[in-house]
Each structure stands twice: as structure tokens, then as C-alpha cells.
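Quick one, C-alpha cells below. Sequence please?
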């Protein structure tokens, strides 16, 4: 591990510093930081290390990744505007075959997540991106003054009670209002929050919410469904755990973690040294939500869950910066 890391460290720093073209620089980024790049492959080898060594090497490797990301970004700015030497151009030669870039991984992951739940018997429901305060908050048991109602989190439409939905949970309320139970469906779609753009936050993102309601549904059903989903979605041996949490629309509530796919549980910057990464929130539907929708909580029970698709894509493909998904760089998309 030591020898391989030092070789990558020395080689990558030298090549990035000496590169003379933007195209060559992007090839180096893919070589060292891409999904199948040298540093991500090195992280996957950490599973063979002793448990005490994993946090040390996870920290070193992720520090080098961040350093290279910053260096490549700075070098790209220096090279921008330069024209690469195209050599002797012969207009009589046939053109190169046009290469279609791959699909955006966010869309691919959204479809994969949906397909997994459909294969488990879930239907799919959709709702409007522009919601009312009632469907986005009140019907989901958000009391007045709850932090999620603060305008720093939500895009409100001036002069009305409408807003850009902050999650896809309002779809669950709309379905329960129109149809009698039982229910078993997911609600995929875009959501919007007033976040500052950085490596882990964007003002627009994708979520998949899920709802299952029937007679005698228990927390054991919730754990069984989500464990099976994690087993199918993440390759290899997947370890999950559930931690107590709080959401206004579920009681009891929990967050589901998986063993870190980057360091295999050893501890790294991606999992903050904990060995596990949170992937979704879930819980049993609060009786008050059922009452808002006209469903008798004494007869029907159920669970709900929600996950961010961009986060799932980052974990699946080892992508460190959320912004890559939306910058439309051809070289990035060609990896998928």
C-alpha cells in the first residue's frame, strides 16, 4: 500500500503540474480521480488492511484526492482560453466517428432505484413540483414555527401560499386523499431548497420517497424492504444498520446507514471516520398524517422512507463532488 500510494502521489503531482492542455488535464483527472481511477481503486484495497491501518490510509488517500481536485481546478483555469495544437489539418480526411457521451449517472441511478422497488411490488406516483404549504408541511405534521418552514430552506412564491416542494412526500398525501388503502408506491422527482452550491449541496436535487400501508404493517416490514433494497443496489456484501432519529411525519423514526463503500468500514473522510454512511430516513407513518388524509390509524399502519438520488449516485460510483453531475463535461459523462 505504501509503495503504490507514493508512486501515485509523485506521478500525479508531476503530470498535473507539467500538463500543457485542457484535454490532457481532463484525461489525468479521469485517470486518478475517476470512478475507476487510481485513487478509488486504492481505496477499495483497504479492506485487506488491518482495522487499525484503515483509518490512517483512508485519511491519506482522501487528502490526496482533495489536493488533486484543487490543483486540477487551478490548472484548468490557467489553461483556459489556450488553443491546443491541432497539427497539420487535412480537410479531405473523413471525420472521426461521433462518440455519444454516457447517460448522466443521476438519471441512471434514479431509474435503477425505481426498478428495484417496482420489482418488489411498488407502484410509481407523481405530483407537482409547485406545492401548497398545506401539502408540503401541514398535512405532514410540520407544526408552525418548525425550522423546515423557514424561508432560508424553502423557495416560496411571493404573494401566495405556494412554494417549490422541499421533498416528494406531498405526493403521498395526495394519493392517500384520493384512494383508499392499502398503498404501496414510490414517488420519484425533483425537490428544491435554498442551499448554497458546494461539493455536497445544490438548490435542486432528486429524491425517491416510498410508502407502504396495510393492516398489521410493522417496523420489521420496513427493515426487511430496505435491507433488500440495499442488498440489490450496492454491489458486494452490504452491511446495514438503523439508528433512532426524528421526522415530523413518522413515529418512530430512523436513519439507515450502510457500511462505507469507500473504506469498507475502516473509517475515511467520506464517512467522517465512522465506517458507516447514512443513505436514507424512514419510519412508521405518524397517526396524525393518516388523520389529515382521512385514513383511520386504528385500522391501518404503514411506513415511509426517503432517499436523495445524487447521494446514492455518489456512493455507488465513488464521486466526491456533487457539482460534477450538472456541469455537462463530456469526459465525465463518457465514464458511464
Amino acid at each position: 500500500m505504501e509503495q503504490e500510494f507514493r508512486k501515485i502521489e509523485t506521478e500525479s503531482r508531476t503530470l498535473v503540474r507539467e500538463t500543457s492542455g485542457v484535454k490532457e488535464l481532463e484525461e489525468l483527472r479521469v485517470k486518478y480521480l475517476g470512478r475507476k481511477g487510481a485513487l478509488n481503486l486504492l481505496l477499495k484495497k483497504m479492506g485487506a488492511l488491518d482495522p487499525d491501518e484503515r483509518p490512517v490510509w483512508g485519511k491519506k488517500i482522501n487528502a490526496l484526492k482533495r489536493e488533486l481536485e484543487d490543483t486540477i481546478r487551478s490548472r484548468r483555469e490557467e489553461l483556459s482560453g489556450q488553443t491546443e495544437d491541432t497539427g497539420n489539418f487535412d480537410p479531405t480526411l473523413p471525420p472521426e466517428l461521433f462518440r455519444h457521451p454516457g447517460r448522466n449517472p443521476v438519471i441512471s441511478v434514479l431509474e435503477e432505484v425505481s426498478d428495484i422497488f417496482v420489482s418488489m411490488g411498488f407502484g410509481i406516483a407523481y405530483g407537482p413540483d409547485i406545492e401548497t404549504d398545506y401539502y408540503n408541511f401541514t398535512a405532514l405534521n410540520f407544526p408552525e414555527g418548525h425550522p423546515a418552514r423557514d424561508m432560508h430552506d424553502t423557495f416560496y412564491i411571493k404573494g401566495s401560499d405556494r412554494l417549490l416542494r422541499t421533498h416528494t412526500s406531498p405526493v403521498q398525501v395526495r394519493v392517500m386523499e384520493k384512494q383508499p388503502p392499502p398503498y404501496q408506491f414510490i414517488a420519484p422527482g425533483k425537490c428544491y431548497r435554498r442551499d448554497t452550491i458546494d461539493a455536497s449541496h445544490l438548490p435542486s436535487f432528486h429524491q425517491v420517497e416510498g410508502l407502504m400501508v396495510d393492516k398489521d404493517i410493522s417496523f420489521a416490514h420496513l427493515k426487511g424492504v430496505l435491507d433488500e433494497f440495499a442488498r440489490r443496489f450496492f454491489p458486494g456484501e452490504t452491511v446495514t444498520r438503523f439508528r433512532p432519529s426524528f421526522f415530523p411525519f413518522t413515529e418512530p423514526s430512523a436513519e439507515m446507514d450502510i457500511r462505507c463503500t469507500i473504506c469498507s468500514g475502516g473509517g475515511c473522510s467520506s464517512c467522517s471516520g465512522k465506517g458507516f454512511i447514512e443513505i436514507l430516513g424512514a419510519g412508521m407513518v405518524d397517526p396524525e398524517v393518516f388523520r389529515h388524509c382521512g385514513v383511520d390509524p386504528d385500522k391501518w399502519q404503514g411506513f415511509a422512507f426517503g432517499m436523495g438520488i445524487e447521494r446514492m449516485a455518489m456512493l455507488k460510483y465513488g464521486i466526491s463532488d456533487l457539482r460534477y453531475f450538472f456541469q455537462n463535461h463530456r469526459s465525465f459523462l463518457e465514464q458511464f
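Residues 54-79 form the longest helix (26 residues). The first strand starts at residue 123 and ends at 124.
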